Amino acid sequence: MLHFCCYIMDYLSNTYLLYIGLSILCIAICLLWAKFLPKHLFHSRKVLHIVCIGILAVSILSLQQHKIYQFVWLLSFIEILLVVAVLKGFFYSEGRRSWGIVYFLPAVILLLLLFPNDKFLVFQSVLILALADGFSALFGRMFEQYLEKSRVMKLQKLNLVHWATDKKTVFGSFVGFVLVYLICYLHFPYNRDGFFLISCFLISLVVTVTEILGSKGNDNFFVPLVSFVLMKIFIQLDSVRNYFEHGELNIWFCLALFFTAAFLFIRLKWLSISGSVFAGLIAFMLLLSNWSLFPMISFFVIGTLAGKLNKNVDSDKKHAKPRDAFQVLANGGITLGLSVLFILYKVWYLEILMLISISVACADTLSSEIGMKFGKKTYGILNFKVLPRGVSGGVSLQGFLGAFLGALVIGIFRMDYFWIIVIAGFLGSVLDSIIGLLFQAKYNRDGQITDIESGDLVGGYRFVTNDLVNVLSNVIVVGICWFFIF
Fold first, then answer.
1. What is the Cα–Cα distance from 332 to 313, expressed in whole angstroms?
2. How many whole angstroms separate alpha carbon 464 and alpha carbon 434?
3. Which 3 state secondary structure label does DSSP give 195?
4. N or C: fewer beta carbons within 10 Å in the chain?
């Protein structure tokens, strides 16, 4: 430890010692603020968030290229100290440990390691987290308190956003949206044409929705990552601009089509507002990758119609309801990630992996819906115990046939890899059932086993939901195919 500390001291310049000193001073002031004025605990936490993460952003901008890895070591050491501090109770907010303070450094470390030549974009992403995320929460809370004092009940209800577990406000989200837009606009002074303005709008929209969907501070991890990826694709890469300027597709036509489709899907109750945002983002990224939209559209339509077969069955709390952002990302997040990788690196087999991912999602969806509708008896996939229909981990012959049919539908989009896509999709559905049986939370409600959170937990883990099971099975199958086939 002494050797490590000496190494850090040799590396640090007076400038970075100043940054560290300012951060420690800010932490001390905010801790004293919260101690002597406990009613201002929330405000002190947000000031700490804005100042300390803002200092980190400035330090990244002034970072010399050959000292990036030493800086990563320093951030890793600070991260360990922060984790210990939270465990010891130094950071407490609204009756619970404030883990949000430990989430942002892993995101920064990841970006610096993967993109050491993009310091400016990393700086931008961290600045968005500091200012947009911090001030949106601060002004949102202040406006909420103002409405409570004014006793304007209608505005209070309209001001609340019910998309995630944490309480978010429309006014705060609007403030965050404006700040993200301004940061993108002011710090990219070149090529401010229509494409640039639309790009800033899309970046602001998706980052704002990401912040809204965050809970228990995990938006501190996702906001800088999402900001970085979107800015790199829409603002830094000239290939994307050239695609829309010289390609067959017009960006205004695409956006009009997406917003029209989103409006219709929301009206039909196929998607929620948050789900439509990320569904549109996935479609947009597929277009930028020059990949076909039809596999994803086919899965979405077939999966949604299949869900109507059991609209009166409560297999879980989200069943037969409009797909929210978590469901969209659970089934299409891997496709989104693969399309981003393709835009950045142009690796040919990523398109096949995309089809495999959609095949897994489609197979699992049809397996569940057809199994619930037509299956006579459902058995645990490993223990062969009789389970109620719709409980995760239960399978039937009809469900297996549905899984094969779902994989088959996606396989026809690439006949040269047809059997790989079909087999991988079918096995992904089987793996989903295995993970669901072993780990997904199950409850006892009136003597019946159910996936709906109610009653006593009788199996699995509370944090393992159906969305998480879908993500895990999809990641594992795509990862295996990537490693062994491509």
1. 24
2. 13
3. helix
4. N
Among 395, 85, 118, smallest CA distance to 229 is for: 118
- φ, ψ of residue 248 in degrees (nearest 5): -80, -20
CA angle 168, 37, 216 (to 5 degrees): 30
Query: For the sheet containing 394-395, what is the strand order?
Result: 386-387, 378-380, 394-395
Number of CB atoms found within 10 A of residue 440's CB: 23
Does residue 97 surpass a pLDDT of 70? Answer: no
The helix (run of H) or strand (run of E) holding residue 342 is helix 325-345
Please tell me whether residue 165 adopts helix, strand or coil conformation.
coil
With a cut of 90, say whether residue 375 has pLDDT above it. Answer: no
Percent helix, percent strand, percent coil in the chain, to nearest 5? 75, 5, 20
Say how far apart CA 441 and CA 458 lie, in whole Å: 8
pLDDT at residue 424 tops 70: yes
pLDDT class of 262 with cuts at 50, 70, 90: confident
Highest mean pLDDT among 10-14, 129-133, 243-247: 129-133
When the pLDDT of each residue in the chain is averaged and rounded to a whole number, the result is: 83
Residues 6+ apart with CB under 8 A from 20: 12
Q: Return the structure tokens found at 440.
A: 């997904």
CA–CA dist 413, 356 (Å, integer): 11
For 162-195, the pLDDT digits (tens) are 776 777 888 999 999 999 999 988 877 666 777 8
- Which pLDDT score is estimated for 2? 46
**Is 388 in contact with 351 (CB distance < 8 Å)?**
no
